[in-house]
Amino acid sequence: IILASSFCIAQAKDSQVKMLAAISQKPAEQNYLWVGTFQMVWNEFADNIVKGPILFKNYKSPLADLLNKQEFKKSMLSEDSYYTAFGPTNIELKKQIEDAIMQKFNEKSDLLDKIDWYHPNNAYLFYAMLIKNFDFQARFDMLADGKFANSKEQVPYFGIDKKSRDTLYDKVHVLFYNNPFDYAVALDSDKDEVILYRTNTKKDFLSLYNSLEQKSKKYKGNKAFVAGDQLKVPYMSIKQDASYDKLCGKEILNTDRLYIDKALQTVQFNMNNRGVKLKSEAVMNIMTMSMPIMV
Fold it and tell me: How far is CA 162 from CA 165, 179, 229, 251, 274, in A?
């Protein structure tokens, strides 16, 4: 199995979480990542301050509509994998967050210094960090370097070939194989799994995941990975920073003239023959609109 255009999912097997993180890699296109940290800060703002869906005055946002569905919640995660906080936007909250993530994860924030903590219109700040490592149950073999998709440079690969030891075959499960451009496998880690989905379909992450589930349920072929099968997976090292500018600067209904000043997220995803490391942060700073001057 050689991944060219791929959809990679990291998820917990025995929990409510369907999709913890997802990465889409397509030839000659930008990598796209999804992690639930921004959804987490959105939920906190909606549930604790707005007391309902976040809607904008005189502006319809498809992204806000999607976030308001709250299909991902922090209650789906184990508490040792995430940290959230919210409160008045002030320097005391910044220090509280910095101390907490250092103590819990031994990590520093890449986002907190991007906030103007002394702005006179500051109201609330919402923060989330997610740290999750997926250690494969067995270390996959290093394979020969090769090109990935339309890349010009050689990249490292790992997986299984005819020289690999038999014990590796039990760590891979075929979810379905319809043709060389439509198949998926799951790689076992200690308590979780990483799904690699080869597809040319261009859909949003949730649609891709639902499609994967349906194909897996319908598939009646052999799901065992056996001698003669090959697995070839490129190393992945992806960092993506996002600023949800279309959500910013618009008055929020059912609030005291609040608006989103900054909505930021960063994701780091690394996969090699030993497993996957995931780190993501999100922050959303809320301000109060200045009162109009009466003349």
Answer: 8, 21, 8, 61, 19
Do 287 and 262 contact (CB within 8 A), yes or no? no
Main-chain phi, psi angles of 48, to 5 degrees: -100, -25
Between vectors from CA 160 to CA 159 and to CA 166, what angle results, nearest 5°?
135
Assess whether pLDDT exceeds 50 at residue 294.
Answer: no
Between the alpha carbon of residue 36 and those of residues 24, 33, 76, 92, 232, the distances in Å are 15, 10, 11, 26, 28
Share of residues in the chain with pLDDT > 90 (%): 59
Give the span between the Cα atoms of 143 and 290, in whole angstroms: 60
Torsion of CA 142, 164, 223, 150, to 10 degrees: 30
Give the model's confidence band at 1: pLDDT under 50 very low, under 70 low, under 90 confident, else very high: very low
Q: In what order do the strands lie in the sheet with 21-25?
A: 32-35, 21-25, 6-12, 192-198, 182-188, 172-179
Listed residue (232, 140, 141, 216) closest to 184, CA to CA: 216
pTM, 2 dp: 0.85
Instruction: Pull the structure tokens for residue 192.
Output: 């979780």
Q: 253 or 76: whose pLDDT is higher? A: 253
| Cβ atoms of 278 and 35 closer than 8 Å | yes
Q: Band the pLDDT of 31: cuts 50, 70, 90.
A: low
Let me know how long the chain is.
295
- Euclidean distance between CA atoms 24 and 32, whole angstroms: 5
Nearest CA-CA partner of 281 in 122, 134, 115, 121: 115
* DSSP structure class, residue 101: H
Q: Give, as one character, the DSSP assignment of residue 221.
A: S
Sign of the CA dihedral 87, 130, 265, 44?
negative
